[in-house]
Amino acid sequence: MLKENILFKGLDTDRIQQIIHTTGTREVTYAPGEIIMHQGDVAQDIGIVLQGSAIGKKYTRAGEEIIASVLTENKIFGDVLSGADGFASPVTVQAVTKCTVLFINYKNLLYSSHPQAHKILQNMIRNISMKYFVQNKRMEILMLKSVRSKITTYLEWQADSKGGRSFTIDMDRQLMADFLGVERSALSRELSRMKKDGLIDYHKNHFVIL
Amino acid sequence: MLKENILFKGLDTDRIQQIIHTTGTREVTYAPGEIIMHQGDVAQDIGIVLQGSAIGKKYTRAGEEIIASVLTENKIFGDVLSGADGFASPVTVQAVTKCTVLFINYKNLLYSSHPQAHKILQNMIRNISMKYFVQNKRMEILMLKSVRSKITTYLEWQADSKGGRSFTIDMDRQLMADFLGVERSALSRELSRMKKDGLIDYHKNHFVIL
DNA sequence: TGTAATTCGTTGCCATTGCAACGGGAGGTT
DNA sequence: AACCTCCCGTTGCAATGGCAACGAATTACA
C-alpha cells in the first residue's frame, strides 16, 4: 500500500521497509473522535493514514469551525509542518472513524544516510509544491470581489483540470460556498442568475459551461 | 553572498562553489523591464537574484495586474515551480532594474550525488513550507467577511510575529488593502473607525493595538 | 524653496451580498 | 406509505463595502 503513497512513489517495497525500520517510525491507533494533532502543536512527524479516515479542521477567531482537509487512507499530513521546522500547526487533526496512523520522524529521515531518502525528499517537495499551487489558485479566487467572477474563475479552472466543459465537482453547495468564500444562498442566487443569462447549466454538482 | 541565501544556508563557500560548478548553472543579465519568466512557462530552474531587483506579477481574468512578490538581491524564485514538476508558472517575473540572475537546474540538483544536495533539498523544503504557511494565513484572512475582522486578524498576526503590540508593517495602504482583499478607501475608513472606537492607534504604517 | 507627485483620509452613492427564514425535493428509515 | 433529514433554491431586508471623486499631507525632485 505504501508503494502507492505519494511520499514513497518510485521506491520498491524493500527500500520502503528498510527506511521505515531504520528511521524509527511508530504506529498509533485512535478511536473515532480522538484528537491526533492539536492546533498549535509543533510536530516533527509526518503522519500517514493506514486505516480509517480523519479530518483536519481549524477554528477562526470568531470560533467557527472550518474543515481544511479530509484525510482518507494513504493520505499524509504534517509534512508541511515538519518541513517548516518550528511552526505551530494551523489545524487540529481528528479521527473520524477508528484510525491507524504511521508516524515518520522527519529529522531522522533528513539525517538518514539512505540514498533513498533523497527520493523521498524529492517526493515531499513535489507534494508540498503542488499543495502550494492549489492554495494559490484558491487565493486568486478569494481575492476576486464579485460572486460571479469567483464562480466563473472556479468553473473554468475545473473545466481546465478535468478537460471538458461538462464536469462534476466533488463538493456540495456548502463546501463550494466555503471554498469561494461566499454565502451558500448568495452562491445559489448567482448560479441561477448565470443559468438564466445562458452562461452555464447545472444540476446539483454537475456543471456545463456554455 | 550565496552563503546567506536561504537555499545554501548551512553550507560553506567551498561546497557551494562545488555544487554550482557541477550542476551546470547559468548566469543571465536582464535589462530593466525585460521579462525573466512568463506566466504559463513550465520552468525547471531555480533563479537567484544576484544583482538588481525584479517583481513577480500576475494577471487576473479581468486583466488587472497583481504584484505577487518583490524579488530583491539574494531572493529566489521558481523553487516551488520546479518542485511541483510540470506546473505552469502562475506569475510573470520581470526585471525592475538591471538585473543578474543565477539559474540552477533543479533536475541536476536532484540527481547530483553530492552529499550536500541533501542539505539543499532540506532548505528548499523549509522555504516552500514557510511560504505555504504565509499563504495559508493570508487565506484565512481573505475568507473573513467583514473588513474589521480582516484588519483585526491581520494586526494580531503581525503583533505575534513581531513580538509586541506596537509595530511597523512593511506595506503601504494600497499593498495592505490588496493583501486583505479590500478596497483601499474601505480599509482607511474602517481603520479610522477602529481608532475612534479606541481599539487601535496608528500613523501611516505604524500600528499600536490597545 | 517651489512644484510635482505620491500617499492617505473622507465622504456620498448604491449595487452587491450577507443574513435569516421558508419551502420543496430527493433519499433514507421504520 | 408516512416520516424524517439533508440539501438546495428563493426571497426580503438591511448594511457592508466597492467605486469614484476630492482634498490634505508628506515626500521627492529640481
Descriptive report:
The structure is a homodimer of 210-residue chains. By secondary structure, the first copy, chain A, is of the alpha+beta class. The first copy, chain A, has two domains: 2-138, Jelly Rolls (Sandwich), CATH 2.60.120.10; 144-209, Winged helix-like DNA-binding domain superfamily/Winged helix DNA-binding domain (Arc Repressor Mutant, subunit A). The first copy, chain A, has seven helices and eleven strands. The first copy, chain A, has helices spanning 13-22, 79-84, 106-111, 115-143, 147-162, 173-180, 184-196; strands at 26-30, 35-37, 45-51, 54-59, 65-71, 76-77, 92-95, 99-105, 166-168, 200-203, 206-209. In chain A, the strands form three sheets. Chain A has a four-stranded antiparallel beta sheet. Chain A has a four-stranded antiparallel beta sheet with strand order 2-7-4-5, with no helix packed on it. Chain A has a three-stranded antiparallel beta sheet with strand order 9-11-10. In chain A, a hairpin with a 2-residue loop joins β10 (200-203) and β11 (206-209). The A-B interface holds A 58, 60-62, 66, 80-81, 83-85, 87, 90, 110, 117-118, 121-122, 124-126, 128-133, 135-140, 142-144, 149, 152-153, 156, 178, 181 and B 58, 60-62, 66, 80-81, 83-85, 87, 90, 110, 117-118, 121-122, 124-126, 128-133, 135-140, 142-144, 149, 152-153, 156, 178, 181. Chain A binds a DNA duplex (30 and 30 nucleotides) through residues 145-147, 172-174, 182-186, 188-192, 204.
